[in-house]
């Protein structure tokens, strides 16, 4: 593999990073909204978001990408592949992060909410200053775990024709016909992105386990 | 974490959410004219990204190939920029019909079943669908294919041809695109490969001296595709193709990529109208 | 121009799609079986006397968990033949799914094993039980019970991951759908429908797991 091919892989890597970042950031916003609705106490909202989560956790990411990719366009929205794929990952991440954060909001002891209410704090202040700071801490290991899953998941964007790392690998492999080498390098690049995050996640998990023992 | 017990309520809610999605669809997709493309200053061209020399991305990330050059010529005629969108074989037509691209210059063989979904232009290049197999194996007739496992790119013309011509029960493996299908032959996952006239050249790079073209299924002509009913764009492309045939620009591209004289093109193809009605 | 939804090709292809569902189930169940074996074996090996073995298991888990399944399956399918190992697409897919799920299973089951207190094992040994029996009854079974929900959700994820196996032409639901799509060009209708089929498959799996949970992992211990 020459320098040119390796640089081409790095261009793909850039898109993988961009896609992961967009998916995670927009997905966080969506996920937070979903987690709040899911724990709002309003039954209609809880059911709606529950259904949303069940739908996205019960179907393959690949299908979600396909349906969003073709569906948005049929709906009259003419977006570039890049935007369409980003929307797909955002919807996907919103569901998973929403469910993770719902769990951690519920894991914050009920007494805290009651105490905050007794102090006459409104919903917004109660969530922002009391519940969410604790919930976010509880959720960190799982959130980071999902981020790793999301980075790996961006490889599926290659199947809808988006040139990120995995597809760049496929193209290079077909130019130089050394699949062992190319997929090895591609695997290592993914590993270098994900492993530090995984290590940090399990470090937090251990620290948290010790703190609550 | 996913819940173990599916509750009926959640099931219903998910179903409702799922059924609500198609409601988004059913509204008009794009209809675009050359004038609108000019006003926008850019034409979005669907092309292949991994099928040299038709359409491919070079290792420095640039779109190149015969189709890319044709598309650039057309953009030059319109006086606009080209934006290439590399597509997998299998999502070329969906990308067009769903409005992701304005036109396909994407090795689109002019086939009647495709003509029901998209509008073809006049042909601008000829191609053939062939079967590539090891020199050591005797393949003289379609029936001989039964003993081989054959790789093809999903949804490509070779998929249709191999599926149609191979005896029932032949092992046909369909991959996501040209690159993985050639890779499958190169790594020995299949014994034979359905492809076009340029495949052998690429197989030679990977496994020199082992393979040859065995059967030719079909002579094909490739045309540009637009959405059904977009008369102006189709007419503009046909005029463009007539021009490059007449003024020698097409021959220049043939010299660059195919190294043969420009083919004789038919005036009509069964079931494939060249102009929008 | 109006795009009108047309589900006829999907309805015509429904029998094929249902057979495709069976293909998906086969991949998922095969993958799970291998994953369980790798998971339990890995947990045993991870406490091996030999440092090299312990590190090998750790390395395997980290490597698999931090690379995408698509890259793993391409690697196994396209690269291993060069090393003289050639498998058909479907066995390759099952193997790749098993390896992928196995790495997660090791981590999950290990978490359960660690939750078993040392005293219980010692009590078992003190009662004169054989080491293997202690592992099976006192360590493994309660550990599996403790981690069963995590394991089940990991396996649902594995079931959904089978769709990626279409990339190497394994026979399953997505590949059938792509064939119908490439004949009819009705992408949205086809993929929308099979998304619902996948939803059905994952619910089927969830019910399957809750049955197993009720049958084998409920108190009182049988």
From TrEMBL, chain A:
The keyword Ribonucleoprotein does not apply. Residues 13-201 form the ABC transmembrane type-1 domain. Signal peptide: none annotated. InterPro entries: AA_ABC_transptr_permease_3TM, ArtM/GltK/GlnP/TcyL/YhdX-like, MetI-like, MetI-like_sf. Keywords: Cell membrane, Membrane, Transmembrane, Transmembrane helix, Transport. Gene3D superfamilies: MetI-like. The keyword Transmembrane helix applies. The chain crosses the membrane at residues 15-37, 49-73, 79-97, 135-160, 180-200. NCBIfam families: HEQRo_perm_3TM. Belongs to the binding-protein-dependent transport system permease family. HisMQ subfamily. This is Amino acid ABC transporter permease. It comes from Ancylobacter oerskovii. The lineage of its organism: Bacteria, Pseudomonadati, Pseudomonadota, Alphaproteobacteria, Hyphomicrobiales.
From TrEMBL, chain B:
InterPro entries: Solute-binding_3/MltF_N, TAT_signal. Residues 42-261 form the Solute-binding protein family 3/N-terminal domain. PROSITE patterns: TAT. Residues 1-25 form the signal peptide. Keywords: Signal. It comes from Ancylobacter oerskovii. This is Transporter substrate-binding domain-containing protein. The lineage of its organism: Bacteria, Pseudomonadati, Pseudomonadota, Alphaproteobacteria, Hyphomicrobiales. The keyword Zinc does not apply. The keyword Cell division does not apply. SUPFAM superfamilies: Periplasmic binding protein-like II.
UniProtKB/TrEMBL annotation, chain C:
Residues 21-209 form the ABC transmembrane type-1 domain. CDD domains: TM_PBP2 (cd06261). The keyword Lyase does not apply. It is found in: Cell inner membrane; Cell membrane. PANTHER family: ABC TRANSPORTER PERMEASE PROTEIN, MEMBRANE COMPONENT OF AMINO ACID ABC TRANSPORTER. InterPro entries: AA_ABC_transptr_permease_3TM, ArtM/GltK/GlnP/TcyL/YhdX-like, MetI-like, MetI-like_sf. This is Amino acid ABC transporter permease. The chain crosses the membrane at residues 17-45, 66-84, 151-173, 194-217. It is a multi-pass membrane protein. It comes from Ancylobacter oerskovii. Keywords: Cell membrane, Membrane, Transmembrane, Transmembrane helix, Transport. It comes from the Bacteria. Belongs to the binding-protein-dependent transport system permease family. HisMQ subfamily. The lineage of its organism: Bacteria, Pseudomonadati, Pseudomonadota, Alphaproteobacteria, Hyphomicrobiales.
């Amino acid at each position: 593999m020459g320098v040119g091919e390796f640089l081409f892989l790095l261009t793909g890597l850039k898109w993988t990073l961009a896609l992961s970042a967009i998916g995670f950031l927009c997905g966080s916003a969506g996920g937070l909204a979903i987690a709040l609705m899911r724990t709002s106490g309003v039954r209609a909202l809880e059911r709606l978001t529950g259904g949303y989560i069940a739908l996205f956790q019960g179907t393959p990411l690949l299908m979600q990408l396909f349906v969003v990719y073709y569906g948005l366009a049929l709906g009259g929205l003419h977006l570039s592949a890049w935007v369409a794929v980003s929307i797909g990952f955002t919807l996907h991440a919103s569901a998973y992060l929403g469910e993770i954060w719902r769990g951690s909001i519920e894991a914050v002891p009920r007494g805290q909410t009651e105490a905050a209410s007794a102090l006459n704090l409104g919903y917004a202040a109660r969530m922002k200053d009391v519940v969410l700071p604790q919930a976010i801490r509880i959720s960190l290991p799982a959130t980071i775990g999902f981020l790793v899953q999301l980075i790996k998941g961006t490889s599926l964007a290659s199947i809808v024709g988006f040139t990120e790392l995995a597809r760049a690998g496929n193209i290079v492999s077909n130019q130089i016909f050394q699949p062992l080498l190319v997929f090895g390098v591609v695997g290592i690049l993914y590993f270098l992105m994900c492993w530090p995050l995984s290590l940090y996640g399990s470090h937090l998990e251990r620290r948290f386990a010790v703190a609550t023992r | 974490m996913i819940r173990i017990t599916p509750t009926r309520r959640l099931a219903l809610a998910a179903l409702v959410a799922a059924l609500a999605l198609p409601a988004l669809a059913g509204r008009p997709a794009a209809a675009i004219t050359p004038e609108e493309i000019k006003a926008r200053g850019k034409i979005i061209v669907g092309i292949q990204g991994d099928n040299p020399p038709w359409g491919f991305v070079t290792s420095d990330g640039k779109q190149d190939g015969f189709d890319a050059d044709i598309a650039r010529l057309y953009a030059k005629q319109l006086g606009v920029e080209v934006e290439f969108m590399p597509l997998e074989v299998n999502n070329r037509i969906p990308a067009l019909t769903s409005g992701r691209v304005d036109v396909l210059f994407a090795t689109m063989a002019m086939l009647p079943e495709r003509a029901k979904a998209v509008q073809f232009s006049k042909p601008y290049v000829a191609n053939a669908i062939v079967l590539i197999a090891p020199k050591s194996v005797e393949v003289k007739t379609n029936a001989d294919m039964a003993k081989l496992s054959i790789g093809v790119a999903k949804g490509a013309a070779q998929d249709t041809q191999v599926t149609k011509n191979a005896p029932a029960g032949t092992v046909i493996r369909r991959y996501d695109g040209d690159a993985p299908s050639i890779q499958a032959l190169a790594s020995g996952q299949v014994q034979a490969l359905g492809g076009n006239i340029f495949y052998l050249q690429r197989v030679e790079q990977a496994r020199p001296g082992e393979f040859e073209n065995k059967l030719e299924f079909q002579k094909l002509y490739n045309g540009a595709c637009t959405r059904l009913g977009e008369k102006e764009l189709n007419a503009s492309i046909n005029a463009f193709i007539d021009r490059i045939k007449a003024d020698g620009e097409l021959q220049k591209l043939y010299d660059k990529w195919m190294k043969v004289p420009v083919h004789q093109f038919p005036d009509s193809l069964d079931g494939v109208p060249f102009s929008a009605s | 121009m109006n795009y009108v939804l047309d589900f006829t090709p999907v309805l015509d292809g429904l029998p094929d799609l249902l057979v495709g569902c069976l293909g998906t189930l086969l991949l998922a169940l095969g993958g799970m079986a291998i994953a369980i074996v790798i998971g339990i074996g890995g947990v045993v090996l991870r406490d091996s006397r030999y440092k090299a073995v312990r590190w090998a298991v750790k390395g395997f888990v980290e490597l698999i968990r931090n690379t995408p399944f698509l890259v793993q399956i391409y690697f196994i399918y396209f690269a291993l033949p060069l090393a003289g190992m050639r498998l058909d697409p479907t066995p390759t897919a099952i193997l790749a799914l098993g390896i992928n799920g196995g790495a997660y299973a090791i981590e999950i089951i290990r978490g359960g094993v660690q939750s078993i207190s040392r005293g219980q094992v010692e009590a078992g040994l003190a009662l004169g039980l054989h080491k293997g029996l202690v592992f099976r009854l006192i360590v493994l079974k309660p550990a599996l019970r403790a981690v069963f929900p995590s394991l089940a959700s990991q396996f649902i994820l594995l079931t959904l991951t089978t769709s990626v196996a279409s990339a190497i032409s394994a026979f399953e639901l997505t590949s059938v759908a792509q064939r119908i799509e490439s004949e009819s060009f009705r992408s949205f209708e086809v993929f929308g429908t099979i998304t619902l089929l996948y939803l059905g498959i994952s619910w089927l799996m969830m019910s399957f797991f809750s049955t197993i949970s009720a049958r084998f992992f409920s108190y009182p211990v049988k």
